[in-house]
Amino acid sequence: MARMISSRRKAVNTAIAWSVGLLIFFPILWTVLTSFKTEAQAIADPPIWFNFHWTLENYVTVQERSNYFRHFWNSVVISVGSTLIGLAIAVPAAWAMAFVPGKRTKDLLMWMLSTKMLPPVGVLVPIYLLFQKVGLLDTQIGLIIVLTLINLPIIVWMLYTYFREIPVDILEAARMDGAGLKDEVISVLLPMAVPGMASTVLLNIILAWNEAFWTLNLTAAKAAPLTAFIASYSSPEGLFYAKLSAASTMAIAPILIMGWFSQKQLVRGLTFGAVK
Amino acid sequence: MGRITLDKVTKSFGEVQVIPPLDLTIDEGEFVVFVGPSGCGKSTLLRLIAGLEDITSGQIRIDRQDATHVPPAKRGLAMVFQSYALYPHMSVRKNIAFPLKMAKMDPAERDRRVDYAAKVLNLTDYMDRRPGQLSGGQRQRVAIGRAIVREPAAFLFDEPLSNLDAALRVNMRLEISELHNTLKTTMIYVTHDQVEAMTMADKIVVLHAGRIEQVGSPLELYHTPRNTFVAGFIGSPKMNLIEGPEAEKHDAHTIGIRPEHLDTSAESGLWEGRVGVSEHLGSDTFFHVHDTGLAEMLTVRASGEVALRHGDKIFLTPQMDKLHRFDAQGLRIA
């Protein structure tokens, strides 16, 4: 009896999980489907599901009208660049906070995190003007700086959490074994923190890749990443759902593929410390 | 190599002074054990010597050189941690070789030393395994291996056996003593277990609330404890401490008698009481004796099997030459 109940409960849970999963996935599926329709089919009422003439026309048009690969490259440079610079700053910061905490360490962490609560639009004008003055508008380096700074609190927090899980004894053992600070961090701390570092890197690349507010406001043509590429198709000159969908699909595909292959690492990293 | 001197060393955490001014000399080649109840500052003292904590005032000298502000990496000391603190991402070989790699030692010499340590510690078959694949005893040996390859001026052990089961603990105790006989290097060993202290040490330092209560050989501490704290702490089972009229008969505030120095009889004796719990160890029997009017409970250690039951009447007579006398401050009366 108990087994019957538990197997029925399992079936219900599975059904709920699938429903929620499909609900979350649906917009992506719809975007992908729409990208293979003609503009007329894309806005057809009632909507057409699978029974349409599949075409690659939208992809060709999109690539002709705007250079996908240039945007793609900008996205790669900006997200990877900001992640690497962020790590270079966050590793020493998180090390200090985790292993040499002071009285104000917790406050400092909260303060850093609180900067994420600020509406970005509140500082848009000063940053825009500043960038204009120093010639950073529409440059890769300008975006790398901004994205590094806005994601830094998250990198520091994540690394801090992972570092705290590492027994201090092991670092002290390294010190006793003659390791200087550099060896202690590079030979002992970082290899032990690899799972945490990997998920931090992945998450940060995803955040930077998807970041739209700053990338749209601080770029025009040269440094525009894929977010700007998508936005250029939601133009007021008319709705081109199929082309917009094709552009969106192309923009999210790389990150979707990366996320797919690293999902195990990502989930493990994000629940690290939460589950003993 | 390996003489360590502490000169008026103190340590405070914020407002709290955990080590009041303390002087101690550890001679070359000595096996010194710091022992005391938990929170007595013994681990802190070891960490001060290691350099893992900064001292608040005073001076630490290692081989006559001032080491007070020398970082741990440069003190030439090796430490074995309670948690072993092995590098989980490295093989046993790499763990043991790590300090030599840090010292930028020539690879051939490095391999020679690592192989030698592996042989001495019976680790040869496990060199390619990760620490996670080893048992507690093997991990402990790797930790010791990592310490010995450096040929340090002194070894520091921070409760190294407390994570092992009882049988293994006895084995490792012997192995560490054996190692000390072979290497003849200074060893400082921290434990809360007075049996470990008594069996391993050349010299025991008894600590209490950051202060040194007594320094001496295991038998000195056993035979002539300087105060009631040391008297109660060293020896197992604990020494019986008796206050009141009985002590006054001996011109003392407190008298102490060890459980093994109480003779028992069913018919007659100096003190009368009733048997409580008995612990039969085979070789010895420990009785708890109540209702003597002297102390809440006296412990008696009798040799071999003794047929006494709960509630039986018993007479105890202390061996007078083994009686310890202490004054009102708890200090020994000579």
Please characterize this protein's 3D structure.
- The complex is a heterodimer of chains A (276) and B (334).
- Chain A is 74% helix and 0% strand.
- With 276 residues, chain A is mainly alpha-helical.
- Chain A has a domain at 67-232: MetI-like (MetI-like fold, Orthogonal Bundle).
- In chain A, helix 4 (68-99) crosses helix 10 and helix 7 runs antiparallel to helix 10 (194-210).
- The longest helix of chain A is centred in the N-terminal third of the chain and has 34 residues, at 2-35.
- The radius of gyration of chain A is 23 Å and the shape is globular.
- Chain B is of the alpha+beta class.
- Chain B has 2 domains: 4-229, Rossmann fold; 238-326, OB fold (Dihydrolipoamide Acetyltransferase, E2P).
- Chain B has helices at 42-50, 92-102, 107-120, 136-148, 166-183, 194-200, 218-223, 228-233, 245-248, and strands spanning 4-13, 16-26, 31-35, 57-62, 65-66, 77-80, 154-158, 186-191, 203-208, 211-216, 240-243, 254-257, 262-265, 271-280, 284-290, 298-303, 313-318, 324-326.
- The longest helix of chain B has 18 residues, at 166-183.
- In chain B, 41% of the residues are buried.
- Chains A and B meet through helix 8 and helix 9 of A and strand 6 and helix 2 of B.
- Chain A: It is a multi-pass membrane protein.
- Chain A: It is found in: Cell membrane.
- Chain A: This is ABC transporter permease subunit.
- Chain A: Pfam families: BPD_transp_1 (PF00528).
